[in-house]
Amino acid sequence: MSSTKKYRFSTECVTIDNPNAGKDQYNSSSVPIYQSATFKGMNGEYDYSRSGNPTRTHLEHHLAKISSAKHAFAVSSGMAALDIIARILKPGDEVIAGDDLYGGTNRLLGYLKSNAGVIVHHIDTCTPSTVEQYLNKDTTRLVLLETPTNPLIKICDVKDVADRVKASCPDAIIVVDNTMMSPYLQRPLDFGADIVYDSATKYLSGHHDLMAGVVVCNRDDLAKHMGFTINSVGNGLSPFDSFLLLRGLKTLAIRMDRQQATARIVASFLNKLGFVVHYPGLSNHPGHDTHFKLARGAGAVLSFETKDIKTSERIVGSAKLWGISVSFGAVNSLISMPCLMSHASIPAHLRAERGLPEDLIRLCVGIEDYEDLIDDLENSLVQSGAIRTRFTPAEENWSSEIGSLERIGEERAMAWEKCSMFEEQPTVKAASTAETKKEGGNIVVSAPGKVILFGEHAVVYGVTAIASSLDLRCYGCLSPRSDNSLSISFPDLDTDVTLEIEALPWKAVKNAHDDILDIDHELVAALENHFPAEKFNSKARGAIISFFHHYMSICYNDRRAVSFSARSDIPIGAGLGSSAAYSTCVSTALLILAKKVAIEHTHNATHISHDGRRFINDDIAKYVNKWSFVSEKILHGTPSGIDNSVSVFGGAISYSRVRDQAMINLNGFKSMKLLLTNSNVDRDAKKLIAGVAKLKQEEPEVVKGVMDGIQGIVDEAVRCFNDKDLNRNVLLNGLSELVRTNHGHLDRLGVSHPTLEIIISKLQAYNLKTKLTGAGGGGCTVTLIPDDYDEKELGDALQKLQQAGFDTYLTTVGGSGLGYLIEEYNLEKNTQSTNEEESVGPFTSVFSKDFPTNELNSKLRESGHWVFV
Ligand SMILES: Nc1ncnc2c1ncn2[C@@H]1O[C@H](COP(=O)(O)OP(=O)(O)OP(=O)(O)O)[C@@H](O)[C@H]1O
Ligand SMILES: C[C@@](O)(CCO)CC(=O)[O-]
């Protein structure tokens, strides 16, 4: 067989030449399966499929071509391939093989040692000088190499070893198991190997639907010997499996590209968590440079150590997406413990001698979405106790010792963000090519507040929380100006600011393009100087700084003169997520202004319900949410991301910041009737969150107990919401009990307030269970009202609260998230006004202080219709 390389690898893979040109009577595009044991006639090319079969010939021809090899053979498994090669050996021959070998290879060599008189040395073949010590000019016949090794991912310099072997034992043959790399990534024949074999069950076929082995070589003498053996023992690959393998090979490059890109992300993720990770794609891998001398990629198998077998067992056992299975190279990702699985046939004492850690976990990365793989892995690590989400203030270092791996939420988020350098930046486009925002018009947006039913504060430390959007909303309006100024107006906070665009501290901007998508601390510091605390009330100051931070980061390259106004019917600073709703409005309006997102204009969008028509697409929502979270960081310091996520996506969810997108819809929560009672005690959420962080530092055990307690409550609540058979009254009574217990935990964190306790006891008198909600320290309480609760009793309770000076809101929850007003006004008149007054149009009065907040929604509806996430 000969091969001429005409194209690049992926093209070669997909173009299968017919070695018997002109012999297919129908010119089939796909190679047919010649499922025939025998072939008629006396002098034909084929007579018996053991000796040769046309489908197998096609395959072997193709394998030789993509491996740039002279000869290729396809046999019934990877081990069959090694068996064919090993039959070159005679009694007395010596074999040098690695000490980190696949268990099956180890078993076959062991058999030859005890039954065929072959001497086998298992040594560290990754150290060429060690190999040299075992070379014996007269008897060394075969040097078996594997690189990277499996599962310790050690790297062997094939060229260096081959040179040394050939120098002193010219008759010895160098055999390389290339299964981990495939011919796409590594071609050991180019580096001095005589024979290369692959278990084609892995990457070559790629789907774990067949067993096959492939042998390639350039030497005619070796090919003749192996061809003879295959015919003699009859382990040539069957026609059907040859067909499947040929089919799999077409996508080898594309699969491998995706798999190794994801493997790199997974390896970085584990590495940044502090695990000992074995992956040659990491620059800290000792064999990194050697590997890349030989190979053009790092592959998609990696392993890592946890230092505890039980922990490893739990990680493997908790994985859902990562399938527990031996083998690798398929499109599905796998997780295994080699010592218990693929390498269990190596006796424990030998595994120990060869330095194979019993706790080692091997990950074989497939083609799933990398975010799902990371999510699943992270969940397994958390569930197994290998990592814990532990938040501490930024200045505290995070421990790097493994065993009791304890990782910090914030640091882990940072680690993840660094990993995301491998991920594509979000591409946010218009939902369709429909008419998009006319330049120069108003941008009117809105976003809901939220109520947390369980898990506030604890959610910052990785505990799950349950929250829902409210019917109360913040509204934002961004309008063009005709001068060179920016103005912001916060009527709810009695604050207006107007300044020239160039007066802003532009030089401080570090993140001049939005790809960085995180808080620009230098810019925040510069803005804090620009808007000194003495001159602004603290609430307005935070909102101003957050607005200008976003304007300067998002619109850096397109600094347009605009006016921005915000109005809200959410009580501000009352624990109902007014800051997240404000942050969502600011982020959305500026992203639309800078054309980073576009929402299509249409006359006939009908919003049915949150779970009904999702008119603003998910990409836009996720992108806005990231910016909204950054604004929340400016306002809250170290938020968990729950408030902005609820505000953007709406609905009722359980949320965990372990990955800040870990949101699960809880439909049962939506129909709940809640009473919100505002204590009207002002408080500062940022300080309260910082206070819990301080307590955690001072009394870690107490706080840990509280966190565990709250997690237990949330787990139970989620179970109840998901239990469709649970009687509604039982559910509500159970949840009410959990509400009471959750408040007890929050009190222990020091975030309650005497006035909140008064509200709670007033409602307790009516047998209604109440807790603080949000950051606490004042603000609102939330009470779950059972469906069958007596109307009159409830009326009495509300009256008592109002008499005591508290504001009450009876509300249902779970409505729409981020909304965008499609202005009929603009569409109809096709307004392109440059006149400020004219373009602000009907909104000037709506966003003024005199306009009642509870009429905002209905008034805005007169100007157009809303579309929602
Ligand atoms: N309508 C608004 N106009 C301007 N700024 C606003 C508006 N609503 C909220 N903000 C900003 O959000 C801040 C309120 O955040 P804070 O965290 O104190 O309360 P909250 O978000 O209502 O409560 P929690 O975070 O506990 O749910 C305000 O101080 C202000 O900076
Ligand atoms: C106190 C807190 O848990 C909720 C604030 O609404 C903070 C957060 O999660 O960002």
UniProtKB/TrEMBL annotation:
GO annotation, biological process: 'de novo' L-methionine biosynthetic process; isopentenyl diphosphate biosynthetic process, mevalonate pathway; sterol biosynthetic process; transsulfuration
PROSITE patterns: CYS_MET_METAB_PP (PS00868), GHMP_KINASES_ATP (PS00627)
Major place of residence: cytoplasm
Keywords: Amino-acid biosynthesis, ATP-binding, Cytoplasm, Kinase, Lipid biosynthesis, Lipid metabolism, Lyase, Magnesium, Metal-binding, Methionine biosynthesis, Nucleotide-binding, Pyridoxal phosphate, Steroid biosynthesis, Steroid metabolism, Sterol biosynthesis, Sterol metabolism, Transferase
SUPFAM superfamilies: GHMP Kinase, C-terminal domain, PLP-dependent transferases, Ribosomal protein S5 domain 2-like
Family of the protein in this entry: Belongs to the trans-sulfuration enzymes family. Belongs to the GHMP kinase family. Mevalonate kinase subfamily.
Lineage: Eukaryota, Fungi, Dikarya, Basidiomycota, Wallemiomycotina
Protein name: Cystathionine beta-lyase
